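Consider one such protein record:
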Amino acid sequence: MISTTKTIQTITASPWFLAIRPKTLPASAAPVIVGTACAAGDGGFALLPALAALLGALLLQVAVNLANDYFDDKNGIDSEERVGPIRVTQSGLIPARAVFTAMGVCLVLASAVGVYLMMKGGLPILLIGLACILSTLAYSGGPYPIASNGLGEIFAFFFFGPVAVCGAYYVQTLQMGLRPFIASIPTGLLVAAIMNVNNLRDIHTDTAAGKRTLAVRLGRGKSSVICGLLILIPFLMLPLLHLFGVISGFGYLALGSAPLTLPLLHALFYVEGTPLNQTLAKTAQLSVLFSLLLAIGLL
């Protein structure tokens, strides 16, 4: 039986709204914005490729969410003991076949966007697109799911950091440089922190299901320390980014998001279970706000 809290959630939100998890979408848009700001700062801003990169990132994020919902149910990871947001496949709100089909539709649409971007950027964009689609399926599915084997944070950093930022930069400027790569590091670290908080919340249910996330492998204490570093390092990088000319002095505006870190750091060590859903949402808010303010410095 679904808990009362989750039942109320199904009443107030469409099942498909729950399935695509729109609260996760700003985090996927943030690295594209950072990459676009780098391009604009270097005089290479191109509106249509920028919008296409943003649309592609959003479609891939929705596809990942649907794949996670589908494969976690198929692999027996989701259960009624889950403390995170309701999963539509496991709860029976949407048939598994429909969720799988919707995931496929999102991947097809993302591929269509990718064709346009490939026409602009050539072979590098093709390789990036193929890597993104394969990783979307491999994140929760396949013989060695990324999310179930302690690689989720690395996946989040790589694809929401260097891949997304540098990809967005490349499709607009048709060149690559060190600046967008360095700018991608703090963005990727904060998205990895979102993943880590998610795994901290689910540490007990993941352990029971045999899902070996980084939090399960390291335990709550060590994983909380790592998550704290993922949150703090982007702020510590700001002086170096300025010193080496990656950002202007306006990049220090990103410090305006620093007050959000205090309750997050407290929660990492003293909050457990369902209340970490709020911590997860606030970590995502920190990621987006930091990236937006950083983008001003990149301009």
